[in-house]
Amino acid sequence: MNSRDLILRNNGKITTNATGTANGGNIEINNTGNLVVFEDSKISANAEKGNGGEVNITARGIFSYPDSITATSEAGPQFNGIVQLNTPDIDPTRGLFELLETIPDAAQQIAQNVCTKGFGSSFTVVGRGGLPTDPNKILSSDNVRVDLVKPVPSTVSSTSATQKQPSQKPPVKEIIPARGWIYNEKGEVLLVGYDPTKTGVQRQQPAPSSNCAAR
User: Fold this and answer.
1) I need a labelling partner for 137 at 20 to 30 A (CA). Which of 11, 72, 113, 172 fits?
2) Domain contains 131
3) pLDDT of 215
């Protein structure tokens, strides 16, 4: 039998079985692309009291169950026939790699501190959009969106002198905790930094400024 692809399904059979003392016949399938024997299908050259036949199959791929292709004899294993399956020389180990005997610890594969355990690591945000405030939430409209920008070429001459301006920091106002509350002329409650009852320690008031010389 010659066939491109031979597919046996739904109890399909190719048999040369023999009854009585007759020997099983021979089955030869040549130059087959794929041989598929599924769903209780059989290729058999069995015998009852005689010798089993010979099954010789040459195919690019053979897909079947172990008992789907047989050449047995009920007289005993010594009277069984021959089942020979021929497929192209394919290295089954191609593309495989040897696994490690010991499983590596995943915690040792992650740098705990990239500043001390590795160099060259970086995290760059590119493209349009931003990052959510919470990694478990989706990006909302409240997040800052950053567009792609082009670098601006420097227009400063190489011969121009650079003057360093002294940094000016704004004066820091002292925060005074509230020590009481009062009503203003509008009937509103205001928190004040002194004791309205004048029973505790009072806040020191700044001395009034005067333009007149002391006499």
Assistant:
1) 113
2) no
3) 40
Residue 182: inside a domain: no
Which residues make beta-bridge pairs with 18? Answer: 47
Q: What is the pLDDT of residues 103-125, one digit of tens each?
A: 777 777 666 665 555 556 666 66
Q: What is the pTM of this model?
A: 0.42
Tell me whether residue 194 is in a domain.
Answer: no
Asked whether the beta carbons of 69 and 78 are under 8 A apart, the reply is no
Does the residue 55 lie in any domain?
Answer: yes
Structural domain including 19 reads 5-86
pLDDT tens-digit readout, 68-95: 999 999 999 999 999 999 887 766 666 6
Number of C-alpha atoms within 13 angstroms, CB side, residue 115?
A: 0
Please report the beta strands in 9-138, taking only residues with DSSP state E, as ranges in sequence order.
Answer: 13-15, 27-37, 42-44, 54-64, 69-70, 82-86
Number of Cα atoms under 13 Å in the Cβ half of residue 214: 1
- Residue-wise pLDDT tens digits, 18-60: 999 999 999 999 888 889 998 899 999 999 999 999 999 998 8
Report H helices in the chain: 114-117
Contact present, 56 and 45 (Cβ < 8 Å): no
Cα–Cα dist 23/73, whole Å:
9
